[in-house]
Amino acid sequence: MYLKLPPPLLMLITLAAMYGVGQHWPWWHFSFWGKQGVMLLLCALGAFFGLAGVVSFAKARTTINPHKPTNASTLVTSGIYQYSRNPMYLGLVFFLLAAWLYMSVLSPIVMVILFVLYMNHFQIEPEEEMLNLKFGDDYKQYCQQVRRWC
User: Fold this and answer.
1) What is the mean pLDDT of residues 33-37?
2) pLDDT band at 21 (very low <50, low <70, confident <90, very high)
3) For the chain, what are the domain ranges?
């Protein structure tokens, strides 16, 4: 695995970078009616996707540790995993989007995009390689049926 830091820590680092970008290179401040409601919805979605992923893994009694996908004992395809192959990472993105709305400036969205690209390359792709080796055709079929993010 290329990744050395846990994804929640990477989200916090991204959040700090978003704040820095918003403070030092603010571009296009915005506000709209109902922003707080949208932020709450994004936080609720983040919590839902993250917790649903954890619950699905717990029910299957398999590892949640993103650094050791080889320890996975079961290919989880039920629950939230019917709709997203990476609901916990998707939950982190929802939290970042809520923070972006809170900042009310366009420029930090670049950090959210970089977070997604980083996660795809350094976390998800290596995980998928390991799961493909471990679960073979079952995992390939699952990947054809369920999208990576949502």
Assistant:
1) 91
2) very high
3) 7-18+33-145
d(CA 124, CA 86): 8
Q: Classify residue 49 as exposed, middle or buried by CB count within 10 Å of its CB (0-12, 13-18, 19+).
A: buried
Q: What is the pLDDT of residue 64?
A: 77
Q: Cβ neighbours of residue 123 under 8 Å, at least 6 residues apart?
A: 1, 2, 3, 7, 66, 89
Helices (H) and strands (E) in the chain, counts: 5, 0
pLDDT in tens, 73-124: 889 999 999 999 999 999 999 999 999 999 999 999 999 999 999 999 999 9
